[in-house]
Prior knowledge:
Elements lengths: L2 H7 L25 H8 L14 H14 L3 E5 L2 H10 L7 E5 L4 H10 L6 E5 L7 H4 L4 E7 L11 H10 L3 E5 L4 H4 L9 E5 L13 E5 L3
Parallel strand pairs: 2-3, 2-4, 4-5, 5-6
Antiparallel strand pairs: 1-7, 6-7
Amino acid sequence: MRDKTIVTHFGYEKDSQMTMAVPIYQTTAYEFKSAEYAANLFELKELGNIYTRLQNPTTDVFEKRFAELEGGVSAVATSSGMSAIFNAIVNVAEAGDNIIVASKTYGGTVTLSGHTLKRFGIESRYFDVHSPSELESLIDDKTKIIVFESLSNPSIDVPDFDGIVEIAKKHKVLTLVDNTVATPIHCKPLSLGCDLVCHSTSKYTTGQGLALGGIIVEREG
């Protein structure tokens, strides 16, 4: 599929009502067909809806569609873009670890990396996306992830993807790219060798400023 087809059709299997538009399922809980079925869901023996905090049919279409658009294997929707970045980081880093962040990033990312994560015992170190060689002196055995933006907000800096990815792979450090400004229509970081992509879907994804959300996409392998 081409990108325009993906964003309008991918991931939606019509329900019994055969609606063309994806329904908005405003439910928190779901009916279990049997006690055995419920047990299988909780034991991850079967896939299905348990509770909307974990999964929701509408959210599922959104995640599948975004993963396909970015060229990833799967995606997880979050409540905001900052929640996406936070979750991506804290799932790989803990107290005593460090992360490396581009010196030019969105203000919320600056606050998260420089203040909030410090309270969790996670150190943030900073580098210039135009000089990836700086990473060599910043990476150690406690470095878990390198965070940067495909187009920095608001300075619109374009990072040296090849240089960053080469060094990250050399040291076996993950890369997380905030692709909010560029969008997957203009840039697909996973195809450039990056490991994770995140978005504030409050911006160009919704397009009209009517919804708040975020998403994390992971590459295959």
